[in-house]
Specification:
This protein is mainly α. It folds into two domains: 42 residues, no CATH class; 55 residues. Helix content is 45%, strand content 8%. It has three helices and two strands. The longest helix has 17 residues. The chain starts with 7 loop residues before the first strand and ends in a 9-residue tail after the last helix.
Length: 98
Amino acid sequence: MEVIGEGSVHRAKKGTEEVKTRWEYIAVSGVLRAILPQILPYMIVKRERARKMLEYFQFLDGNPIRGKKEVSREYYEQLDSLYCAIKKLNEKGKTIER
């Protein structure tokens, strides 16, 4: 948080005695849009998740709906598809992606 200048750091809920304390960095989408491309080359375990998040942001940026009275069904289907892909990657028990 100090390096980036935005967001917050919180200690995550501790599960059991065998689990180490885990810290989480939380930021809004604007911060993630700026940071993810910079750290992507260094990511190992969460690389595919970061790529999918960037794809999600690129879709939103390339298909603005502000001011539109009607939005196509395909827009929401694509958005839902990307969202579901990200959620699936975040499921517990996933193997390391490389």
